[in-house]
Predict the structure.
Amino acid sequence: MKQYTQLTENEREKLFILRQKGLTYRSIANELQRNHSSLVREYNRNIISPIIGYLPDTANILAKDRKAKHGLKIEKYPKLKEEIIQLMREERYSPEMIAGRLKNNGIKERVSHETIYRFVYSKEGLETKLYQLLMRCRPKRNQHYGRRTRSNYGIPNRISIAERPKLDKKEFGNFEADLTFFSGSKSINLSTMVERKTGYIMANLNTTKHSERIALKLLNNLLKFPRSKRKSITFDNGKEFVNHTIIRQIAKTPTYFCNPGSPWQKPYVETTHALLHRFIPKKTDPKKLTQEIVQHALNKLNNLPRKRFNFKTPAEMLAKENIYILGALRA
């Protein structure tokens, strides 16, 4: 039996326009693939007055108000709420990951990611500080923070991303690399490398950001892939990548650099860093970190379901490529 869903804003707009044209509810129902009685109820209960009639914008507001009075769907299913909180706390699932996984598993009592976000920012969610488990730990939604641009790059043999051939999203072997640091240290870092097609991440703990050391760590990870699977690697303009030619010469892999102040040109590694810091927070004491701790976080991260893969994991996506990387499929 098909589950009923409320009319969308677009459907309400069409209902208004078609009624203005004099079409019957049955004709409109055929157009919208809706039950005509549902349209009658929608129209009649959202009439503002006999003179003004039905307005789609007002109908949207009234529908949201009615839904708010009914409370969150999560509150009606205590076991579902408990499972959602557990997945957020223990597995570090995001609301989208939870909603997608529930859908894939065919669970009857499931909710949308937006409903989970509303629960996170509800009174109960704020009191229990569930927002701290999100990728961006903000007590309020829709806050944006700018980033400062940097100058004085001085990278020898630098090739701009503008000269990089257009990447095929279906092609394996295009990587993005970067460093991520922790509070209280400007030297201890993680050098990370993400493969764009699968989202698979590899990372190494470094006690220094010396460019040669960083290049060798990235090179070691890159060489775990066959030569035919090393298409390109893209960096930002940090001085820690001035020895990128080591990678180019030994791995025979073209290296490219983003435009100044344009970290969005390597979106996959930027997004993955935000996920990584859910398992190793920025406030972690870097002196207590070990490569074993880092690897444990990577295993968790590579087994997180992703929306862009229809909630499959990077490890599962890598497995489809028939490329075996040590530790890739470890839970």
Remarks:
- Residues 161-320 form a domain with the Nucleotidyltransferase; domain 5 fold (CATH 3.30.420.10).
- The longest helix spans residues 56-69.
- Residues 143-152, 326-331 have pLDDT under 50 and may be disordered.
